[in-house]
Each structure stands twice: as structure tokens, then as C-alpha cells.
Amino acid sequence: MNVQDAIRTRRTIKEFTPQAVPADVLDRLLTAGTLAQNHRLTEPWRFCILGPQAHAALAAVDAKMATKPVIVAVTCALQGDAFQRKEDYAAVACAVQNIQLAAWAEGVGMQWSTGRTAMSPETAQLLGIDAQAEEMVGLLFFGYPAATPPARARRALAEVVRRLP
Ligand SMILES: Cc1cc2nc3c(=O)[nH]c(=O)nc-3n(C[C@H](O)[C@H](O)[C@H](O)COP(=O)(O)O)c2cc1C
Q1: Which residues does residue 136 pair with via DSSP β-bridges, in sequence order?
Q2: S-S: 58 plus which of 22, 37, 65, 75, CB 3.0-4.6 Å?
Q3: What is the mean pLDDT of residues 68-82?
């Protein structure tokens, strides 16, 4: 799949088959994240891959988590001044986009979640994320799509562009 096709057909996937995503596939996808652009090579992304025990513990807090075959928490290392932190957060978003497109290109679906469970201090504590050192960017749910929703409409380019003389 070429990049344009991946961008144009990508969807946020929320319903997954029970099929597990092999560890080597997941590693390949997260590696795609680590290749994202990042200013001054701060490499601010951190990934926490939930094993069966952590996954079950999260599902005990939010039963929906049991329907997500693989859960990875993505955080941004808190380094430098306010401007660097803004840039680093942007770089982590680039990493997530890389991961989702790489996943899509090989048939793996993903949802980026910033819902209540993803952003709660209890979840951070459960996953051993130190709020002083890392900021939660979200939970990524991975799996093979059970349902692929239709494209959500976007505004026409002309509505979001100003062309200067
Ligand atoms: C920062 C961020 C946070 C998101 N959090 C959620 C979320 O908590 N729950 C959810 O259903 N989708 C979430 N999404 C996915 C969007 O809802 C989704 O991208 C949007 O509906 C467009 O659908 P598409 O990705 O299939 O084009 C998030 C996306 C981004 C970029």
C-alpha cells in the first residue's frame, strides 16, 4: 500500500476480532513510531506495552479494555522548557500517526484513546507512569478490524487554506 492510499483509507478502529497481534508485528509498528520527526532528536516518545496481568488489571477498572486485543500506553517524556515540551508532544503525535499508518498498511487497526480511562491518574499509577517524568498522550488499542467504519467527512481544502499573493 502506498502512502497516499494508507492516508486515504485509514480509519480509527474500535471493534476488533479476538486475534492477537504478534509481538514482532507490534514491535515493527512501534519502531515506525520511533522513526518520526522530532526536533533536536529528543526522541520524547515512551511506550508501555501491557502484558496479560496489566491488561486484566485495566479491564477490572474499565470492562471495555477487555475487548482491545493489545493496549499500549504512549507518553511524552517531560524534558526542557515549555517550548520544548510543546514540540516534544507534537513529535509524539507524529509517532502515533506513523504507527497508525504503518499498522493500517499491514492490516492492523488502531484507535488512539484519550478517554477517561486513558487519561485518569489511576491508570497512570496502575501502569507505573511517573507524572513528574512523563505525560500521558493516550492509550493505543491495536487489533485486526472486525468492522471498518466509513470515512468521516472532512472540510474541503479551500475552507482551511488562505493563499497569499
Ligand atoms: C488526540 C486524539 C485523541 C483521540 N481520542 C479518542 C477517544 O478518546 N475516543 C475515540 O473514540 N476516538 C478518539 N480519537 C479518534 C478520533 O475520534 C478519530 O480520529 C476521528 O473520529 C476521525 O476518524 P478517523 O480516524 O477514522 O478518520 C482520537 C484522536 C486523536 C488524534
Answers
A1: 75
A2: 65
A3: 98
